[in-house]
Design a protein that fits this description.
Elements lengths: L2 H13 L5 E6 L2 E6 L7 E7 L4 H51 L1
Antiparallel strand pairs: 1-2, 2-3
Length: 104
């Protein structure tokens, strides 16, 4: 993913209603809800129960609320670790080249 895509995902995650989110079925709809206050639960979205996909889509939306920030953090952690290793490799390669020149 590009840095721009990661930035946009981070922006979307930070702008979304805080979790936790959950699913409830009612009438012919599935709803995704959150209760980040002491008030009535807030409906995040309603999905019509007109296919086998509705409950699966709701479950994915609920899981994504926690997963996207965690995945972004893991991408950042891995990128930072890669940069550290890459920089160490570059330094070691340069030292090896300098040592080779001194021997020659």
């Amino acid at each position: 993913m590009t840095e721009e895509q990661l930035t946009e995902l981070r922006r979307l995650a930070e702008a979304a209603t805080p979790g936790p989110w959950w699913i409830e079925g009612y009438a012919s709809m599935f709803g995704v809800f959150t209760n980040n206050t002491d008030e009535q639960p807030e409906t995040i979205c309603d999905l019509p129960d007109d296919s086998d996909y509705s409950q699966n889509n709701a479950a994915f939306i609920v899981a994504a609320r926690a997963a996207v920030p965690a995945l972004l953090a893991e991408v950042e952690r891995l990128a930072a670790a890669w940069h550290v290793e890459h920089d160490a490799y570059i330094r070691a390669d340069e030292q090896a080249r300098m040592a080779k020149r001194e021997v020659e």
